[in-house]
Amino acid sequence: MRRTTLKDLAEMLQISTSTVSRALKNHPDISNAVKTKVKEAAETFNYVPNDFAVNFRKKSSKVIGLIVPEITMFFIPSIINGISSVLNKEGYHFFILSSNDSFDTEKEHLETCINSRVDGILISLTNETKDSEHLKKLKEMEIPAIIFDKTVPKSIFESVIFDNVKNAELCADKLINHGCKNILGIFGDENLEITQSRLVSFETRIKQFPGIILNIIYCQSADLVKEKLDILLNDDSIDGFFAMSDETLMGLHSSLIKRSLNNTNKKVVSISEGTLPKYLDETYEYQINDGYEMGTIAAKKLMDNIKTLYTDNFIDSNKCYYL
C-alpha cells in the first residue's frame, strides 16, 4: 500500500497542503474544526510525517553513519549501546555498516554515508587502515567525524581510544603482586598496533623483575589459543596467564577447564570489556575497557562538533582522548 502524503490528505479534504501541515502542527491560525478534520483523516489513512523531507529542508538529516570493522559478540555491542544512549536523547538516528576489516570496503562505506547526507560519522578503522588520507573528503565537505577504538598517525579527526600502555602495565602488576614466577602472555595478531602497544608495555613491566620468566604467544582467535595451549599447558610450571582481550581469554578459559586447571593457584588476568570474566570464573582479574563509556564519549564529541560546526566557536581538532 502506498504511503499517504500531505498532498493526499489535502486532496481528500479539498484544502491546501500548507493548511494540512499547519493543522497537524496545531498552528493558531487554523480553526479547531479544520484541525480536528485533518487529524482524523491523518489517523484514518495512517499518515506518517516524512522526517527526511523535513530535515532536508533544515539542511540536517538527523542521521549518523556508524562504521565498524566487524560486529562481534564482544565489545562492539557495548559501544553501540553507548552511542545509542546519546544519539537517541539528541533525536538522532544512526545506521551501522560493517567493513569486514577491509580498507576498500571502509572507503565504500564512507561514500555511502556521504551520499546518504549524514550529519556526522563515527568510525572504527580497519586493521588495514594505515593513514587518514581517505578521510580528507569528509573534512573538505565539513562532515564531522570521530574515530574510536583505533587511531592512525597524524589523524585529521579527533580520536577516542583506550590507554593500552597503562592497561597492560596494570595487568602485569596484578600477576607480579600475586607472586607469579612463570607467566604466559597471550596476545592477538602480532601485526596490529594494539597488540604491539600492549605487548611492549606488559613485557617492559615484567622484565623489571629478573626472577620472572615470560613466554609470549600470538593467537588471532579463541580456537588458535586452544590449539597452542594444548601443547603449552603440558608445562605445569606456568602459574600466571595474561589474555590481552576477551577473545583470547575465552580460548584460555576453555583450555584451563579442559585440563581442570581452573580454580587452582594459577592466576588469570586479562584486558576485557568487563562482562565475560564475571561469567567465566570469579577468580579472574581484569582491567576494564568499557565499550559503553567509549561509545558515549565518542557520540557526545560528535554531537558537540555537529552543534558547533556553523558557529564561531567551532574548533577543528585532531586531539586523541585516552580512556
Describe this structure in words.
The protein has 13 helices and 11 strands. The longest helix has 18 residues, at 291-308. A 6-stranded parallel sheet has the order 2-1-3-4-5-11, with helices on both faces. The chain has a 5-stranded parallel sheet with strand order 7-6-8-9-10. The protein has helices at 6-13, 17-24, 32-44, 51-57, 76-89, 103-115, 136-140, 164-178, 193-206, 222-232, 246-258, 276-280, 291-308, and strands spanning 63-68, 93-98, 120-123, 145-148, 158-161, 182-187, 213-218, 240-243, 267-272, 285-288, 320-322. The protein is α/β, with parallel strands linked by helices and 323 residues long. The chain has 3 domains: 6-49, lambda repressor-like DNA-binding domains (434 Repressor (Amino-terminal Domain), Orthogonal Bundle), CATH 1.10.260; 57-162 and 292-322, 3-Layer(aba) Sandwich (Rossmann fold), CATH 3.40.50.2300; 164-288, Response regulator (Rossmann fold, 3-Layer(aba) Sandwich), CATH 3.40.50.2300.
Instruction: Enter the CATH topology name of the largest domain.
Output: Rossmann fold
Our count of domains comes out at: 3
CATH homologous superfamily classification of the largest domain:
Response regulator
For the terminal residues, how far apart are their CA atoms?
A: 50 Å
Quickly give the structural class.
Answer: alpha/beta
Q: Please provide the ordered H/E string of secondary-structure elements.
A: HHHHEHEHEHEEHEHEHEHEHEHE
Number of discrete helical segments = 13
Pfam family, one: Peripla_BP_4
Transmembrane segments: 63-80
Keywords: DNA-binding, Membrane, Transcription, Transcription regulation, Transmembrane, Transmembrane helix
Protein name: LacI family transcriptional regulator
